[in-house]
TrEMBL record:
Protein source organism: Paracoccus broussonetiae subsp. drimophilus
Pfam families in UniProt: Glyoxalase
Domain VOC residues, every copy: 4-126
Name of this protein: VOC family protein
Gene3D superfamilies: 2,3-Dihydroxybiphenyl 1,2-Dioxygenase, domain 1
Record InterPro entries: Glyas_Bleomycin-R_OHBP_Dase, Glyas_Fos-R_dOase_dom, VOC_core
Amino acid sequence: MPSRLALFSLLVPDYDEALAFFGRIGFECREDTDLGNGKRWVRIAPRGGETEILLARAVNERQTSAIGEQGGGRVWLFLQTEDFDGDYRLMQAAGVTFEGPPRDEPYGRVAVWGDPWGNRWDLIQFARPDRSGTTR
């Protein structure tokens, strides 16, 4: 049985634009390999993170129309932090727009933000190590 989610792809219009944005908010580029014909294998992750994002440049109309819509308009990406206030300030300074102020939920401290392509993310500091959302 597989043991972990290694990577997932995120559709973007341009590799370099995406690398610049994610670099500003503290992600590292772990690999950027030219595969020929304009295609690259670009892996990024938050510093020290295990799961990686494979940046996938949209190459046709269907993929282009899905940029920013992979979550169907919902928050679908969750960026975990152990220093919510510090990372919130860092992201604001890097130009990230938050949809509202931070809030406290049963599962942790959270603020919703959007990347340049319309994907909705949570910056989240979980209340419990097991990431549970109840007090039971």
